[in-house]
Amino acid sequence: MEAAKPNPVYRAAWYVARFLLHALFGYRVEGAENVPQEGPVILAANHLSILDPIAIGAGVRRPVSFLARADVFRLPLLAWLLPRLYAIPVERGQSDLSAIKSALRALERGMAFGIFPEGTRSRTGKLQPFKTGVAAIALRTGSPVVPVAVIGTDKAWPVGRKLFRLRRPIRVVYGKPILVPRAERISRQELENLTREIEAKVRELLPPEYR
């Protein structure tokens, strides 16, 4: 499958994000070569800060689609910008079937899709139990899952803080892909097993204070 090429807006935003992350936070990336350059792939990461999608997307050259709160799509500038950054709107606090279908369609088109299986940002920095949604999407599409560890964004822009803090190092680590066979029927046990495997692989990439 041919690799999805970023549109001009995404490409420009990617360069700006890389520059600012390096300039403001001493941004470092490890294991970017583990992310397949083409075809569908899920990037499953821990979640610490609103900076996480930017830090993860800036670490790889192919475009990455993320879920974003539907209410921000109603703001004039973001309503224009977010679709061009491949963001998918999701209604907060409920199971949004349309967002799941959009994620499935993105993967069927060969996109990279970023997701935070914890479901919300960790307020302690410690990894929270993963929900099974990421495993369901992977099994439905047969997409490999790349575990991703985000480190330091909780110090750079903590939950509840209005402004970021300068010179707090941010590091993103991409692990080896987990190959997932496509399944027409998915048992609860298969969901649980894959979810726990993805969670364990992310945990392995994190330093002890984040596990």
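Next protein, fold it too.
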Amino acid sequence: MRNFFNFLKSKVFFIQIGLAILVLILFVFFTLRWLSSTTNHGEFVEVPDFGKMSVPDMRKAAEEAKLRYEVLDSANFNPDYPRFSIIEQTPPAGNKVKENRKIYFTVNPSGYKKVSVPNIIQVTQRNAESMLRAVGLDVQRVTYIDQLGKDMVYYIKYKGKQIKPGDKLPKTSKVELVCGNGSITEKARVQADSE
């Protein structure tokens, strides 16, 4: 045990400790230099604003900025943006990122997705309007015909043509409801009396 304590006080021990510390310092220094050069430490690229760009223009701009990209589909059509243009990007424009960073894009589809017309025949006008709004359709106009059921929907029109429940229309389409006015025509009265 005494030899061990004498070794800890010897010149050889201090030289070995000094060499070990020097090797450790050199190892850390060269590791940090290597990491700095391989990760481009401190070098950033500013993300351009790709908003409203077409997909081909976006690809060209991303390659010029030395960025990778991935195009995501969009579920909702945005009428404020041109069709097939960029409506959203992650990370946003102006952020500083490393070269070769992947940017995610959401593209505006060609139009609104189609929705099924609900069965609103023989339903009151008020309930029909609620059911149509629930699926994303709007009532542009309500017209009345001589039918006994007041404010009851007898059929639906889209762009002047009669449509059936289950038909597909682009979301936000405007339809016309044809409802009864509560009166009955003389012809129908005569038919009812003759039966």
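About the second fold: DSSP finds five helices and eleven strands in the chain.
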